[in-house]
Amino acid sequence: xxxxxxxxxxxxxxxxxxxxxxxxxxxxxxxxxxxxxxxxxxxxxxxxxxxxxxxxxxxxxxxxxxxxxxxxxxxxxxxxxxxxxxxxxxxxxxxxxxxxxxxxxxxxxxxxxxxxxxxxxxxxxxxxxxxxxxxxxxxxxxxxxxxxxxxxxxxxxxxxxxxxxxxxxxxxxxxxxxxxxxxxxxxxxxxxxxxxxxxxxxxxxxxxxxxxxxxxxxxxxxxxxxxxxxxxxxxxxxxxx
Length: 241
Known about the structure:
- Helix content is 34%, strand content 24%.
- The chain has helices spanning 26-35, 79-91, 136-141, 157-162, 167-190, 197-219, and strands at 38-46, 53-58, 66-67, 69-72, 101-110, 122-132, 149-155, 225-228, 233-236.
- It has six helices and nine strands, in the order H-E-E-E-E-H-E-E-H-E-H-H-H-E-E.
- It is an alpha+beta fold.
């Protein structure tokens, strides 16, 4: 089951934590990647109408293909603070806390990475959120780092679910669509009168249908083929719970 029923992803600070993060030279960072699983936050960035998702096509390892916006969590950051920093860095956006809605959590193992030795790969855990932009002014601020991304597109959720995209991206989009129905059901219950039993039942059935569709994504993961002409790299994915 997904985490979409949670109000958010809690951050528990026991005692007083002070970050001692420091820059690691490439060789030391490579050793760290061999021994640690990185925590990451990624974002499904929605258009002001809420109908399209912003995606970037990465041109570096890992995952040199269409992907989320996001990256590594720094020590001492809450997941939302990490998202805020990454959106400022990658897209030039300043987004307030309450606009982040938790979508799902996933884990990754990539066979390649950007740091030497590249074929040692890297492993991540992901907290995924969605954020809907408010207006065209925010849309115009969106700018990607050309050193990491070769192109970008606003895509319909159906394009991602039905197309040749990484199962992790499909999984997140599927969870978002199911979560949208759950949000609609919650609003219906909270409105004056609480909605009719028929309305709530119909939304509950739709939610369960979409949640089951998320599981189907993992069953078809081997259909995805990653092809990066820039890096002369091809591979496939094996997804499972």
